[in-house]
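Attaching the record inline, Q. Sequence:
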Amino acid sequence: MIIGTPREIKDNEHRVALTPQGVQMLVEAGHEVLVESGAGEGSGFSDAEYAAAGGRLERDAATVWGAQLIVKVKEPLPLEHPLLRAGQILFTYLHLAADPVLTRQLVDRKVTAIAYETIEGRNGDLPLLTPMSEIAGRMAPQVGAHALFHMSGGRGTLLSGVPGVTPGRVVILGAGSVGASAARVAVGMGAQVTLFDRNLDRLRFLESALGGRASTLAANHSAIADAVLSADIVIGAVLVPGAKAPVLVTEEMVRSMQRGSVIVDVAVDQGGCVATIKPTSHSHPTYVRHGVVHYAVPNMPGAVPRTSTQALCNATLPYLLLLASQGLEHALAESPGLAAGVNTHDGAIINRAVAEAVGLACDPSH
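Structure, as predicted:
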């Protein structure tokens, strides 16, 4: 199969879908890999390394997009929509629940779009989402702490505190991969951490895993409203696979927060779990609403592209090899978890949660 890896064009997105080692494994398996020139530079991989691995370098993005199977990091942007074509397999993060325009493009152009974030593991986990969730979760307290600096518009609070001064308060909404990773880092930074989730068993596990250094609370409207009142940082870490994130922090709650406090909504790529959130970028990562600093960069791991690219390729490569070697039909039959990743196919939406989120019909029979 011919596989194409284009250069990412999202703002400050320096990750690349394939490492040179990944290219080498695909070439050794008998596939042809087209790599757009400069695609790996942001992650520290040179064109020469891809060529040495057996990749075919192309300066023209349209040539790369002509491949049968396109492997990316982030969703196609409007400039790339005309390059999508019928029968093509697109393998990337999509987050279609928050992007009805792209969803319609994929349907109209009859693209088979397989979303990393909805592929399921044997235990119902999300193996291709987890690595980036862990990275974004570990970054969240760090970017929040930086946003708290006075010169960043924050309250001027040091998360760890100092002797005689209490540490900062971090409230984390969601105890999945993002929330757990955020809690570990926030605890390590010396903050007072409160972790919310609806799953009490998950909260029990994390309370033990964190050595009792974080408080855990069952998620409900009243408890969240009380917690955000005194929070220095609120981290949104909610995920409903394929669907829009539920809004847990209302605009009234944001108004009630302390001036100069910070919201880091990692769920923004699924619409966000804070009523006042809107996507930002690495170039302009924050804005202020009701006196609260909002950070909402959808591609947070793009800030640490070397680590992120390696972690992502480690997770995606087995599925990519299966797709390329077996073909779409056989690969999906062999791997039900991969089949769960199919969001659109042959002009239809396959994933019910996506269809409901964007208000279009779902036809899983395709």
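The mean pLDDT is 96. The domain at 130-303 is CATH 3.40.50.720 (Rossmann fold).

More tomorrow.
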